[in-house]
Amino acid sequence: MLFTTWIIIFILLLLSYFYYKRDMTGPLFLLSAAMLLCFSIVCLNYENWDISTHGFYYLTTLTFVVALVSFFIGTLCSRALLSLRKNLLSDTHSESVMERTYGNYPYLLFSVLSLFFLIAYCMVKFQGIDLSSFSAFRASLRKIYAADKEYNFFTTQLFEILVAIGYISMHRFILDKFVHKKKTNLLVFVPIISFLIYALLSTDRNILIRFFLFGLLLFMTSYEWKKSVFVRNKKLLIKVCAIVAVFALVFWAFGRMKNYKSNFERSIGIYAGSGLYAYNLWLEEFDEDYTYGKYSFSVVQNTLAAVGIGKASDVPHNSEYITYNSPNGYSFSTNIYSTFRPYYQDFGMAGIAIIPGLMGMLFEFLYLMNKKDKFGFWWLFYTSHVYPVVYCPILDQFLKRFHFGLVYEIWWLVFFYFLVYAKEGLWRVKISAKQ
User: Fold this and answer.
1) What pLDDT, on a 0 to 100 scale, did the predictor assign at position 179?
2) What end-to-end distance do the CA atoms of the chain give, in Å?
3) What mean pLDDT comes out for the span 328-344?
4) What is the rounded CA–CA span in Å between residue 148 and residue 170?
5) Model confidence over 270-279: pLDDT tens digits?
6) Which residue in 113, 143, 294, 352 is a FRET match for 175, CA 20 to 30 A apart?
7) Which of these, 327, 293, 298, 324, lies nearest to 311 by C-alpha position?
8) How many Cβ atoms from other residues are within 10 Å of residue 330's Cβ?
9) pLDDT > 50? residue 89
10) What pLDDT is attached to residue 426?
11) Do 264 and 32 touch, CB atoms closer than 8 A?
12) Neighbours of 344 (CB within 10 A)
């Protein structure tokens, strides 16, 4: 069943490649590619995870197929609803967008702001650190990393502003380097580096992964095509694989900072592949009544409760750990079960069909707007918010992100984009570093 599942996902990946006319940034292609990559990691651990003895549950394969097909149907619905829009998939770009994004940009202002917010974050994060000796410093630092620090509304906004400026700066760097082909102002790297330091200090690897996906998709969508489709996609794939390999090493290094003892191969395998296999193990043992939204919408319920609507969910923030010990001595422990577990746990196969279908509609809409608004706002928005699709084989980042943090994140991104690139008549930053 394992090999059959891999072949099915591979075929769906090829179909999605041609569905988007060889564009490798469409949401269905990204979902299929992420599924194939993570499932390939499961296959590579055939011996380590004792799959040869335990087997692979047929219902797991069925949920994968239903989810991918439903996502595809969702994309078709979006295309049907927007079919009256002319030149929807045109690769031509608006001259007004090109003109605005080529113009002035507040490099110095954003550099100063990002450094200020980084320092503010450090002061909050490391409050009470012991500097009496190096050993005391290390001990207090480890204690700070292990603790869950609560932040108030004001400090949360400081962090969100730092993140937004980092994203806007990466967007500007890609524009300057690969779209407008002009000399890069080195100040654009100050907010990017400040953001990376923030991610490093926070030790939240999901922040780093989302930023990496954002930068990678910006690069892929701005890649200049000069040769045949086969040649250009082959060159792009080589570059993307090299970038992913470097990022994987950085990702593993971040894990070491949190005292994770796993080696590189084990760390990547557990994070990227164990979600699908843990879901397979969980699904095989699942024999309970459906909970009808209790797990899928727990974050939505908590968000509503925060504004006085209903009561908070009793679902814990993290799922329980599942530990599997192979007869060959290899063992792994994980509490991520891919995005499929809460949907199946709540609604069975109906949840696997409906929720990915809605995801397909939403992200296909964003993708089509991105294609229409090439290098404009929707380009930035799509590439920065399509990460739940890529995360599907690992954990739910779609419904679990429906909280106020997402609202703040979107607000500051929109605010800074239109502050810099708005048309005349709206707010426009006049401070410029013409260098």
Assistant:
1) 84
2) 60
3) 82
4) 29
5) 777 888 988 9
6) 113
7) 298
8) 14
9) yes
10) 40
11) no
12) 25
pLDDT tens for residues 195-247?
988 887 776 778 888 998 999 898 888 865 444 555 566 776 777 777 777 76
Segments making up each domain of the chain, as ranges: 2-421
CA-to-CA distance for 367 and 371, rounded, in angstroms? 6
* Mean pLDDT within 145-157: 68
Nearest to 165 by CA among 226, 126, 204, 117: 117
3-state SS, one letter per residue, for the chain: CHHHHHHHHHHHHHHHHHHCCCCCCCHHHHHHHHHHHHHHHHHHCCCCCCHHHHCCCHHHHHHHHHHHHHHHHHHHHHHHHCCCCCCCCCCCCCHHHHHHHHCCCCHHHHHHHHHHHHHHHHHHHCCCCCCCCHHHHHHHHHHHHHCCCCCCHHHHHHHHHHHHHHHHHHHHHHHHHHHCCCCCCHHHHHHHHHHHHHHHHHCCHHHHHHHHHHHHHHHHHHCCCCCCHHHHHHHHHHHHHHHHHHHHHHHHHHHHHCCCCCCHHHHHHHHHHHHHHHHHHHHHHCCCCCCCCCCCCHHHHHHHHHCCCCCCCCCCCCCCCEEEECCCCCEEEECCCCCHHHHHHHHCHHHHHHHHHHHHHHHHHHHHHHHHCCCCHHHHHHHHHCHHHHHCCCCCCCHHHCCHHHHHHHHHHHHHHHHHHCCECECCCCCCCCC
Which token pair is 171? 């967007």
**Cα separation of 219 and 240, whole Å?**
9
Task: Determine the residue type at 37.
Answer: L
pLDDT at 92 over 60: no
State the residue for tokens 């269905």.
28
Q: Of 290, 298, 296, 294, which Cα lies nearest the Cα of 348?
A: 290
* Integer CA distances (angstroms), 140 to 127, 200, 229, 258, in order: 10, 17, 55, 14
Q: What is the pLDDT of residue 430?
A: 41
Query: Over 50: is that where the pLDDT of 434 sits?
Result: no
Compute the mean pLDDT over every residue in the chain, rounded to the nearest whole number: 82
> Tokens for 87?
């030149």
